[in-house]
Amino acid sequence: MGERCSRHERTDGTDFVAQSHKVAGEPSVSRASGYLVLEDGTVYRGRSVGAPGAAFGEAVFTTAMTGYQETVTDPSYAEQLVCFTAPMVGNYGVADERGESARPHAKAALMRALGGREWADWLGANGLVGLEEIDTRALVLRLRDGGAMRAAAVADENELSVGDALEQVRAQPLMEGQALVAQVSAAEPYVFSEIGTPKVAVVDYGTKRSILRRLARAGAAVTVFPHAAQAAELETFDGVVLSNGPGDPEPLRAETEVVRDLLGRVPILGICLGHQLLGLATGHEAFKLPFGHRGANHPVLERRTGRVLVTSQNHGFAVAPSEAGEATYVSLYDGTVEGFDFPDLRARSVQFHPEAGPGPHDAWAILESWVQEIGR
After folding, report:
1. 198 prior amide bond cis, ω within 30
2. Residue ranges per domain, the chain?
3. If DSSP states are collapsed to H, E and C, what string results for 44-109?
4. What's the CA gap between 311 and 307, in Å, rounded?
5. Catalytic residue among 8, 105, 133, 272
6. Cβ-count burial 92-108 (b if 16+ within 10 Å, e if not)
7. 65 and 296 Cβ atoms separated by less than 8 Å
8. How many angstroms separate the Cα of 175 from the Cα of each of 68, 169, 281, 291, 320?
9. How many other C-beta atoms are found inside a 10 Å radius of the C-beta of residue 60?
10. Is the pTM of this model over 0.90?
11. What is the C-alpha separation between 222 and 195, in angstroms, rounded?
12. Residue 220: which of 203, 238, 197, 240 has the closest Cα?
């Protein structure tokens, strides 16, 4: 077996070397010498296995062990460079049906080891920078301690020097204040599933296909609307789902006002960003987490029963902790509000992903029970 090294550099000029081994039969992929540079100046060396060029965005990490294709096609990862903590990524190939949208939304995939040529080819064909041999453990510790950071993933150092990349990174906007839903939302309404009862409208802030599939499988007729849909067209449905999506909820003032207008007029279910918008519409506070909740192993307490759900999550902003009676679920990591129920307003929400695409199935019943409830 041949030996490989992964190197990252500190801002003080010192560096670490982590060793790994090439496994017999490992896919042969054309590699250039690439790197990731964080806004604090830390550099992580790796090898390019995806598209050429440079990708700029917010460096984040996910602890999910599976679902790499679903992750990079999830619109909630827009403008982000995703570090996978799983030690090998790409080991079970790719398939069109795993995509959570029509195209990737993450800007780069950062991996310890590439698991298969098919994944590398997919990254290249879809324009994603991919780096392997990144010291992902060191990177995750840096992000955990310093928070998510602006960064650049560069496929070939000969094309863009570290110094030039760092200058561009520090010129990038922070994630706070960024309204990103317009770049991932549907441009026009469309029918996803025309047969079924009840009739559900999904406001697309960056919805995942698995949410739409779960609603349809539960028996609902599903119509998807752009993020700027108005209350008058939504309230004609039996229920409204406020979808997941990327970016900061705070600048989405028009979307929040529509949610406020819908309260008490039609049943609402918010998911992820939709949960945050419901929180803002009802007087709660949203804020940016230091490094976010991303993965498929996040414990959430259901206050009413004391039951703990293991959930799939992907968000960098959250609703501030609250002892209010409407706060139904809380994160066991940091106490942030993970769910609301406003019976008088016919509105509820969850911060986590009940469709679990991918992830554990503890929360699957939430979508099905809501569809059954509004269909009576």
Report:
1. yes
2. 3-171, 181-374
3. EEEEECCCCCEEEEEEEEECCCCCHHHHHHCHHHCCEEEEECCCCECCCCCCHHHCCCCCCCCCEE
4. 12
5. 272
6. eebeeebbbbeebbbbb
7. yes
8. 23, 13, 21, 12, 18
9. 24
10. yes
11. 8
12. 197
Of the listed 227, 298, 315, 353, which one is catalytic? 353
Strands 3-9 and 43-48, bridge-based pairing: antiparallel
Which amino acid makes up residue 64?
A
For the question of residue 227 being annotated catalytic, the response is no
Q: Which of 137, 182, 148 is nearest to 293 (CA)?
A: 148
CATH number for the segment(s) 181-374: 3.40.50.880
Whether residue 272 lies in the annotated active site: yes
Catalytic hit among 70, 100, 132, 355: 355
**Quick check: helix, strand or coil at residue 289?**
strand
Extract the tokens encoding 52. Answer: 């050429």
Closest CA relative to residue 285, chosen from 329, 317, 330: 317
Cα 362 from chain centre:
19
Spatial separation of the C-alpha atoms in residues 153 and 55, rounded to whole Å: 5
284 is catalytic: no
For the chain, the first-to-last Cα distance in angstroms comes to: 63
Tens of each residue's pLDDT in the chain, 376 residues: 333 444 555 444 444 333 333 333 444 455 679 999 999 999 999 999 999 999 999 999 999 999 999 999 999 999 999 999 999 999 999 999 999 999 999 999 999 999 999 999 999 999 999 999 999 999 999 999 999 999 999 999 999 999 999 999 999 999 999 999 999 999 999 999 999 999 999 999 999 999 999 999 999 999 999 999 999 999 999 999 999 999 999 999 999 999 999 999 999 999 999 999 999 999 999 999 999 999 999 999 999 999 999 999 999 999 999 999 999 999 999 999 999 999 999 999 999 999 998 889 999 999 999 999 999 8
- Fold of the CATH domain 3-171: Glucose Oxidase; domain 1 (3.50.30)
pLDDT tens sequence across 175-204: 999 999 999 999 999 999 999 999 999 999
Work out the burial of residue 134: count CB atoms within 10 Å of its CB; fewer than 13 is exposed, 13-18 middle, 19 or more buried.
buried
Q: Which two tokens stand for residue 2?
A: 């041949």
- How many angstroms separate the most distant Cα atoms in the chain? 66
